[in-house]
Amino acid sequence: MLECHGRIVPVETKSGAAGAMKSLHQFMHDKSLPLAVRIDRNPQSLQKMQVKTTLGNPVDYQLLNLPDYLAWRTPSLVDFLG
Questions:
Q1: Has residue 30 got a pLDDT over 90?
Q2: Which of 4, 13, 17, 63 could form a disulfide with 41 if both were Cys (CB 3.0 to 4.6 A apart)?
Q3: Into how many domains does the chain fold?
Q4: What is the pLDDT of residue 16?
């Protein structure tokens, strides 16, 4: 988790370039948060996630993907996204 100007932003770290993120999807559904961060080996990107939890509940949020070498920039990038 990251607290940024009163906002809570979940951060998920992956050791590889792939992963299902089931727990992140469920957390985003339960808390109704608009933004999450994933740190892994993929290039930087911003994705609109429209997925379902393992229980079949729809969840929509933005996912900021950051390569591990940019992890230190997470707070400023989250601020930039507003």
A1: yes
A2: 17
A3: 1
A4: 67
Letter for the amino acid at 80? F
User: Would you state the torsion angle of the CA atoms of residues 29, 31, 33, 39, taken in this order, to the nearest 10 degrees?
Assistant: -80
Range of the domain at 61: 2-81
Contact 79, 4 (CB under 8 A): yes
Indicate the pLDDT class of residue 49, thresholds 50, 70 and 90: very high
Rounded to the nearest integer, the mean pLDDT of the chain is 90
By C-alpha distance, which of 14, 34, 29, 18 is closest to 82? Answer: 34
Put simply, whether the predicted model's pTM sits higher than 0.85 gets the answer yes
